[in-house]
Amino acid sequence: MLRAVVKRGAPTIANDVLRWVRRMFDYAIKRHLVRFNPAAAFDLADAGGKELARERALSRDELATLFEAMRQAKGFSVQNDLTVKLLLLLAVRKGELIAARWDEFELEVDPPVWHLPGIRTKTGQPLDIPLPTMAVEWLQKLKELACNAAYVLPARKLQTRMVPHVCESTLGVAMGKVKHCLPHFTVRDFRRTARTHLAALGVEPHVAERCLNHKLKGVEGVYNRHDYFEERRRALEAWGQLLLKLERGDATAKTGKAKAA
């Protein structure tokens, strides 16, 4: 099973498969369904191998190039365009956005907010995400395109699995249509890109980390329960304004160079 996944060119997914299989059989042992875990003897070397930390972050100039390529790409839908921009702006994980429901959003309150439930976050903790002006506009466009669906990104065609929202692979496949001619990057690199530019904009490290829903480290993480909502709102608004300038091809906005976070 693991070899089949690796053969498809997905070593990282093979590692995830191994981790989940181990956990499934451990659970089966606890429930007295099996006597031993057949995956216990396997390690990452038997799956996709050791995963190296990625360092890719898109510079301002690269983001401007990407936005232009998205506009020119054939078959790259408005939904895909807005999804990419929301992922960059809000720095959320892809799975957190594609499975989002409209009842999680309050777009008419001041300030607008996305109540991301803990069941879909990596930390298991819910997060209230302040929505910048442009995020609200992009979400309202998606709401019109969703045609009263419960999900922000509803399934676009009948699927055998009957998943009510777009699949994890949908955006990656769509990005393959964008001929940007940039060095390789993936959707996963968008969060690192956002973190890099937040730092370049002068956002305090602890605020930028909370924008990515990272737990604060050390004593501060244990005793400081302030969630920096207002600070995160201002930070994301500034980041969003930069994205708008880059989307317009503003030459002055493209002069800054981003480094890997």
Q: Which keywords apply here?
A:
46% helix, 261 residues, mainly alpha, three-stranded antiparallel beta sheet, 3 strands, 11 helices, hpI Integrase, Chain A
Description:
- With 261 residues, the chain is mainly alpha-helical.
- It has 2 domains: 2-46; 60-255, Intergrase catalytic core (hpI Integrase, Chain A), CATH 1.10.443.
- It is built from 11 helices and 3 strands.
- Strand 1 and strand 2 (113-116) form a beta hairpin.
- The chain is globular and about 60 Å long.
- The model is unreliable at 257-261 (pLDDT under 50).
Mean pLDDT: 89
**Helix count, DSSP H or I runs of 4 or more residues:** 11
CATH topology of the largest domain: hpI Integrase, Chain A
The strand count comes to 3
Side-by-side strand order of the widest sheet: 1-2-3
CATH class of the largest domain: Mainly Alpha
Q: What structural class should be given to the helix and strand makeup?
A: mainly alpha
CATH superfamily of the largest domain: Intergrase catalytic core
- Cα end-to-end separation: 35 Å
In CATH, the architecture of the largest domain is: Orthogonal Bundle
Outline the biggest β-sheet.
Answer: 3 strands, antiparallel
Count up the domains.
2
State the gist of this model.
With 261 residues, this protein is mainly alpha-helical. The chain has 11 helices and 3 strands, in the order H-H-H-H-H-E-E-E-H-H-H-H-H-H. A hairpin with a 6-residue loop joins strand 1 and strand 2 (113-116).
Please give the structural blueprint.
Blueprint: H1 2-7, H2 11-30, H3 60-72, H4 78-90, H5 94-98, E1 105-106, E2 113-116, E3 127-130, H6 133-146, H7 170-175, H8 189-200, H9 205-211, H10 218-223, H11 229-247
Antiparallel strand pairs: 1-2, 2-3
